[in-house]
């Protein structure tokens, strides 16, 4: 009965073990949804991660594992899971490319114009975010929600209980930090 | 790569400083940084350059890049397994699986013929019993869809009443866009393929079949370059299976919105133009390499030639009427533009480069879900009117019954009703009355549409799941303007806590809408019972109190009586008996229901001295049976002092004013009833009656027409409509209406008047005489009205006396009734009014 709800409450109270359990509980569902969506999309697909989180939320609510009013808490938490799902899938694909002997041969001479591989971008952001988190946890939180969760600035403002303007400010600074870190 | 933690910390500090400065000041500031910051200067300069929303670098982080699709067949997670049989089919291997369905390669296992099919197995949480029958019916229609560009649908069924499946032609091909990309096709070749798509879609539309889910993955291209559309009609096959009152309706649809038309996202009825929109989105992606973004379509298609841009924009118009009406027109427009100039009119550099580069999409261009597109658009397209000024407005929708057998509607409806009762006690809040909110029950409208119809700013909705003594209630308060959930809560409690939950919800609404309460205990309901069974009977009784028929009032009375038998001290149930019995008395003109009503109303008052309904019931008895308007007024005034917004009270008060000849005031109160209860046909009927007496026939006609739109035929309303035409002088029309009345009493009543007016004296007399011989007691006041109209004053007063002796409720409002004007000042008429206690 409302299993996730209980976990969410304990996790919010700061119980680290429960956070792990919660993560383990939510990960497979989001992963499956993300993969289904990627398969559905035909070729390269922009993952609408927000709608994935929403869909997963609906499923939990319908299954009675989550109370509807835990939406905000679930969303706040789910961006972390979503990040992990995305980063892991990018890692898997990168590993497959290496494993299959895929070499970065370019027939074109205009290599500089080649769009960077999307998995590379994702992994770079992820790493830059790791170091950002050590400097400013709140900035990192915003990036996680905005970039990996795909939430709107308004939604993030509600979750962090700050104004939308503050989120915009944080998001601008966070992106600058990430860019600087990724380009250094 | 990357910066150290120490460097990041410093960078953060420096950025904080820099962001305070103007761009010009930043340059000077950068130049003056101390030498130990030198390693960071370059990174800082780059970062600061990005302080411009149009710079690609910073925009690249606004969105996840596109990710490669996972290869079908590669670790597909399925619920079914190879070798399994569904109907006549044996599963061979999975072709794909997504959130909504699995698709298997399958073959006929009964050897009927050697054919491989793609077997689609939708993932449905609930398979209704009638699904198999429906599938069979729909399949006969879909089987007529035989066309080169459309994959055939062979068969559909439900295995063991549990697993639905749909057998379709197995097409080996590549999704449209991937096919074009991998071959590096130019615009012309792309448009040619797209014309094939339009041709196939147009054929299906001509047969009345809408796809509803057109997207690139449903459009395959074979090795020979032949387009094949998948899943035609499948969406509609499944659509009507989903319960519109399911949770998805409450919490929004879990749709992939990129290709769906605005109207289908809103859950409205769709037609072929919804498919046109989806095709527009496909064309957008086909030509530009990305789906329509959250910016306006116009600006998102800048790279296209003028003609193509106009075509895409038109197909993607928000309003269906602004799109191409059909596939053929769409195709014609493309052909016109797709002459030799087409290749030249092609995209500008970015897209060309992307096309040459092949598979990788430049991922940085913002593509947001279409929902966001609408949000950005809302300035131009009103999503909901914002009706209220200072006054807060709310509608409470019937709660959704999520109980297993869905047999607790009286509980889910009852809860919403009780909430309406509680909320009307808040002086600053205008609450839409039950009949209006509930009229929208089965419509699949979204919140904005509902709010628009009811003219409210907020909507409260929820669901109830009851099992045994447990009760799970979810509620949310939604702001109509933008669909924001202002407040939501779920209660998982025992049945006995239901009152507490109701009060809790009501006070949460007060808080959320920032309203004030009259007194501290204003929301504490005087409607407690500790007996859960009694409460359920009570809610059931309220279900029947909808004024539709006497029979339903009898059932209501019986349910309230059972409630009282279980808990004799349950005041609202006593008041319920009283209200139902008073209406039965008035409809049947019998005394015993009135006696019961009076006794029960007084029992209720003894138990709950401030229970509004009890006073309303007693006032009804007092004015309808006893013509005791003084007593009725004191009850109504007292009830007004408790809860001036109670809709039962307002309606009763309005008819009190009308009966006592205060027509103007009655109209004013009745208009308030209509404003609060705009979707209840009965309130419009009442308004119609009063407008007839006010001689405002055009307005009366309008009110009655409104009533007619809201509920089907009623004998009584037809009488009113006939009277309007009689008094307005449209006698032919009046006679036509009169003759069409299904009720013998009402037919003869109005025919006798209308036929007389057009000179059909024989018909008029026959009708009158039939009434006199068949229904003298039931129709006394009508017969008096006929005689007044036909000019027989003597008989008019004979029958008026008889009606008075019978306490005929049809006498109500007689002092202002057209046709009785000539008796103004007539001592005989004065006497009648005195006997009715309505003389001045």
Report on this model:
Chain A is built from eight helices and no strands. Chain A is mostly helical. Chain A has one domain (3-183). Chain B has a six-stranded antiparallel beta sheet. In chain B, strands 10, 11, 12, 13, 14 and 15 form a six-stranded mixed beta sheet that branches. In chain B, a hairpin with a 3-residue loop joins strand 5 and strand 6 (163-169). Chain B is globular. The termini of chain B are far apart. Mean pLDDT of chain B is 78; it is low at 71-75, 240-255, 339-390 and 518-523. The chains are: A mainly alpha (184), B alpha+beta (840). At the A-B interface, helix 2, helix 3, helix 4, helix 5 and helix 6 of A face helix 1, helix 3, helix 6, helix 9 and strand 15 of B.
Instruction: Average the pLDDT over all residues of chain B and give the rounded result.
Output: 78
- Secondary structure category of chain A: mainly alpha
Q: What is the assembly state of the chains in this entry?
A: heterodimer
* DSSP strand content of chain B: 5-15%
Distance between the termini of chain A: 50 Å
Question: Gap between N and C termini of chain B, in Å?
Answer: 97 Å
State the helicity of chain B in percent bands: 40-55%
Helix content of chain A: over 70%
Helices and strands of chain A, in order, run as HHHHHHHH
What fold name goes in the CATH topology slot of the domain at 186-213 and 220-377 in chain B? Transferase(Phosphotransferase), domain 1
Please tell me what the overall shape of chain B is. globular
> What is the tally of beta strands of chain B?
15
Largest sheet of chain A: none
- CATH H-level homologous superfamily name of the domain at 186-213 and 220-377 in chain B: Transferase(Phosphotransferase) domain 1
What is the topology, as strand order, of the major beta sheet of chain B?
Answer: 1-2-3-4-6-5
Number of alpha- plus pi-helical segments of chain A:
8
Mean pLDDT of chain A: 76
């Amino acid at each position: 009965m409302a299993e996730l709800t209980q976990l969410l409450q304990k996790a919010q109270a700061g119980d680290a073990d429960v956070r792990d359990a919660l993560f383990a509980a939510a990960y497979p569902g989001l992963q499956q949804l993300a993969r289904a969506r990627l398969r559905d999309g035909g070729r390269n697909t922009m993952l609408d991660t927000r709608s994935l989180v929403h869909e997963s939320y609906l499923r939990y609510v319908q299954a009675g594992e989550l109370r509807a009013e835990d939406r905000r808490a679930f969303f706040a938490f789910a961006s972390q899971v979503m990040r992990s799902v995305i980063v892991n899938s990018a890692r898997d694909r990168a590993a497959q490319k290496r494993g299959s002997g895929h070499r970065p041969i370019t027939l074109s001479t205009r290599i500089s114009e080649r769009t960077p591989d999307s998995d590379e971008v994702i992994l770079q952001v992820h790493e830059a975010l790791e170091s950002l988190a050590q400097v400013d946890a709140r900035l990192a939180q915003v990036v996680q929600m905005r970039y990996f969760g795909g939430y709107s600035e308004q939604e993030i403002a509600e979750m962090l209980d700050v104004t939308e303007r503050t989120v915009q400010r944080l998001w601008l600074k966070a992106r600058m930090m990430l860019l600087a870190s990724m380009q250094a | 790569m990357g910066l150290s933690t120490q460097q990041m910390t410093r960078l953060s500090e420096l950025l904080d400083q820099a962001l305070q400065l103007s761009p010009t000041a930043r340059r000077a500031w950068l130049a003056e940084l101390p030498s130990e910051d030198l390693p960071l200067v370059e990174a800082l300069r780059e970062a600061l350059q990005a302080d411009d929303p149009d710079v690609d670098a910073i925009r690249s982080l606004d969105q996840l890049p596109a990710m490669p699709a996972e290869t079908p067949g590669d670790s597909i997670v399925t619920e079914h397994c190879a070798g399994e049989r569904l109907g006549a089919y044996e599963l061979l291997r999975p072709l794909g699986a997504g959130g909504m369905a699995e698709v298997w390669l399958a073959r006929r296992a009964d050897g009927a013929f050697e054919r491989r099919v793609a077997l689609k197995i939708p993932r449905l949480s609930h398979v209704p019993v009638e699904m198999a029958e429906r599938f069979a019916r729909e399949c006969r229609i879909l089987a007529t869809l035989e066309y080169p560009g459309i994959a055939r649908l062979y068969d559909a069924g439900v295995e063991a009443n549990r697993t639905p499946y749909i057998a379709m032609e197995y097409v080996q091909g590549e999704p449209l866009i991937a096919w074009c990309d991998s071959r590096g096709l130019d615009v012309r070749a792309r448009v040619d393929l797209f014309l094939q798509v339009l041709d196939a879609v147009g054929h299906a539309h001509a047969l009345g079949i809408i796809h509803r889910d057109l997207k690139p993955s449903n459009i395959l291209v074979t090795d020979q370059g032949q387009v094949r559309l998948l899943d035609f009609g499948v969406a509609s096959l499944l659509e009507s299976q989903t319960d519109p009152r399911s949770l998805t309706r409450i919490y929004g649809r879990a749709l992939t919105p990129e290709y769906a038309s605005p109207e289908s996202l809103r859950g409205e009825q769709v037609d072929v133009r919804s498919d046109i929109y989806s095709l527009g989105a496909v064309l957008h992606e086909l030509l530009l390499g990305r789906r329509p973004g959250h910016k306006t379509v116009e600006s998102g298609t800048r790279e296209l030639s003028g003609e193509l841009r106009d075509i895409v924009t038109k197909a993607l118009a928000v309003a269906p009427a602004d799109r191409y009406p059909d596939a053929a027109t769409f195709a014609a427009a493309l052909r016109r533009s797709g002459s030799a100039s087409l290749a030249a009119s092609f995209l500008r550099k970015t897209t060309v480069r992307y096309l040459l580069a092949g598979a990788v999409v430049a991922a940085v261009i913002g593509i947001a879900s279409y929902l966001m597109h609408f949000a950005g658009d809302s300035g131009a397209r009103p999503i909901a009117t914002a009706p209220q000024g200072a006054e807060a407005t709310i509608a409470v929708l019937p709660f959704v019954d999520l109980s297993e057998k869905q047999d607790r509607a009286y509980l889910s409806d009852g809860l919403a009703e009780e909430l309406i009762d509680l909320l009307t006690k808040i002086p600053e809040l205008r609450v839409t009355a039950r009949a209006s909110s509930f009229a929208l029950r089965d419509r699949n409208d979204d919140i904005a549409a509902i709010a628009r119809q009811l003219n409210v700013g907020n909507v409260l909705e929820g669901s109830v799941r009851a099992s045994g003594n447990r009760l799970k209630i979810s509620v949310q308060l939604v702001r109509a303007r933008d669909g924001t959930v202002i407040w939501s809560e779920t209660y998982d409690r025992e049945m006995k806590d239901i009152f507490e939950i109701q009060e809790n919800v009501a006070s949460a609404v007060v808080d959320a809408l920032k309203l004030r309460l009259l007194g501290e205990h204003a929301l504490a309901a005087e409607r407690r019972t500790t007996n859960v069974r009694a409460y359920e009977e009570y809610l059931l009784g309220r279900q029947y109190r909808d004024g539709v028929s006497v029979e339903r009032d009898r059932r209501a009375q019986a349910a309230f009586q059972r409630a009282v038998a279980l808990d004799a001290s349950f005041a609202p149930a006593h008041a319920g008996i009283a209200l139902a019995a008073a209406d039965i008395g008035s409809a049947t003109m019998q005394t015993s229901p009135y006696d019961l009503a009076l006794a029960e109303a007084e029992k209720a008052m003894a138990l709950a001295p401030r229970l509004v309904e009890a006073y309303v019931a007693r006032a009804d008895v007092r004015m309808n049976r006893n013509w005791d308007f003084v007593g009725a007024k004191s009850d109504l005034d007292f009830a007004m002092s408790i809860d001036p917004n109670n809709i039962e009270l307002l309606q009763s008060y309005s008819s009190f004013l009308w009966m006592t000849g205060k027509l103007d005031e009655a109209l004013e109160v009745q208009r308030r009833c209509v404003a609060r209860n705009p979707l209840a046909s009965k309130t419009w009927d009442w308004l119609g009656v009063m407008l007839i007496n006010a001689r405002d026939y055009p307005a009366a006609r309008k009110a009655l027409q409104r009533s007619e739109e809201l509920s089907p035929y009623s004998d009584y309303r037809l009488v009113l409509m006939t009277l309007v035409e009689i008094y307005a002088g449209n006698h032919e029309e009046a006679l036509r209406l009169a003759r069409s009345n299904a009720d013998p009493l009402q037919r003869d009543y109005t025919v006798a008047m209308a036929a007389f007016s057009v000179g059909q004296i024989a018909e008029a007399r026959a009708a009158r005489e039939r009434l006199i011989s068949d229904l003298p007691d039931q129709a006394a006041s009508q017969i008096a009205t006929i005689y007044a109209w036909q000019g027989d004053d003597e008989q008019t007063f004979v029958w008026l006396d008889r009606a008075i002796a019978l306490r005929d409720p049809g006498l109500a409002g007689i002092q202002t009734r057209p046709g009785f004007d000539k008796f103004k000042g007539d001592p005989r008429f004065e006497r009648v009014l005195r006997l009715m206690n309505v003389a001045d």
